């Protein structure tokens, strides 16, 4: 059995005509890959800083955290966000990954799921934006979904989790007490527990 790579590699790739930065850890041959997106105040490095990438690698997963275009060390793109995620999955040979999508990254993940839910194995919605806009197109999708929110989220209210799960037929809502919009920063241990439980149950 291949040993998991526990050292986190920082690399660049050309995608959609831009230089995109990403972090990768874990066994490339792992059966499950987790793709970590990020919010507007954060970057791929956030997932390393709070221990998520190491946790995933230790759990036997391959993890890829990407600086979205125009954030972190990635250049901006002029093209379509859904096309960018399609190119990303193709470039990294990600076969039905689980996507973790907080906040601003919902501009990528939500329309992607509306069009290509079959390309994912699971969706961890961490108070992503864009639910209201695409709710009609999410109707009846059976993609396994963990909707995880902070109880004190004043940016994307917890009521959005209910709207999301009313559309998606295979979802679970978790509200982390005393955590705000970036609930994984304030309640990291609880967030990690819920994430790993969700992955193990897939």
**Structural class given helices, strands, pairing?**
alpha/beta
Mean pLDDT: 95
Silhouette: globular
The H/E string reads EEEHHEHEHEHEHEHH
The helix count comes to: 8
How big a fraction of the residues is strand? 15-25%
Biggest sheet: strand arrangement: 1-2-4-3-5-6-7-8
- Uncertain parts: none
Q: Share of helix among residues? A: 25-40%
Oligomeric state as shown: single chain
Question: How many β-strand stretches?
Answer: 8
User: Main sheet?
Assistant: 8 strands, mixed
Question: What Rg is obtained from the alpha carbons, in whole angstroms?
Answer: 16 Å
Q: What is the distance, rounded to the nearest whole angstrom, between the alpha carbons of the first and last residues?
A: 22 Å
Subcellular location: Cytoplasm
Keywords: Cytoplasm, Hydrolase
Domain AB hydrolase-1: 34-128
Protein name: Alpha/beta hydrolase
Protein architecture, described:
The protein is α/β, with parallel strands linked by helices. It has helices spanning 44-49, 52-58, 81-91, 106-116, 131-138, 159-167, 183-186, 188-201, and strands spanning 9-15, 18-25, 33-36, 62-66, 98-102, 122-126, 145-150, 171-176. The longest helix has 14 residues, at 188-201. The protein is built from 8 helices and 8 strands; from the N terminus they run E-E-E-H-H-E-H-E-H-E-H-E-H-E-H-H. An 8-stranded mixed β-sheet has the order 1-2-4-3-5-6-7-8, with helices on both faces.
């Amino acid at each position: 059995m291949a040993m998991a790579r526990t050292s986190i590699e920082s690399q660049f790739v050309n995608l959609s005509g831009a230089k995109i930065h990403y972090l990768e850890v874990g066994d490339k041959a792992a059966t499950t890959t987790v793709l970590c997106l990020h919010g507007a105040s954060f970057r791929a490095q956030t997932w390393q800083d709070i221990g998520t990438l190491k946790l995933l690698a230790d759990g036997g997963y391959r993890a890829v955290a990407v600086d979205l275009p125009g954030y972190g060390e990635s250049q901006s793109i002029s093209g379509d966000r859904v096309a960018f995620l399609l190119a990303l999955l193709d470039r990294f040979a990600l076969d039905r990954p689980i996507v973790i999508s907080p906040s601003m990254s919902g501009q990528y993940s939500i329309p992607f799921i509306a069009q290509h839910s079959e390309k994912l194995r699971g969706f961890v919605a961490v108070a992503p934006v864009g639910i209201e806009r695409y709710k009609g197109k999410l109707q009846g999708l059976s993609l396994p979904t963990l909707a995880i929110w902070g109880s004190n989220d004043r940016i994307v209210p917890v009521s959005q989790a209910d709207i999301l799960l009313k559309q998606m037929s295979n979802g679970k809502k978790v509200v982390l007490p005393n955590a705000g919009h970036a609930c994984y920063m304030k309640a990291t241990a609880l967030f990690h527990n819920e994430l790993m439980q969700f992955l193990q149950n897939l």
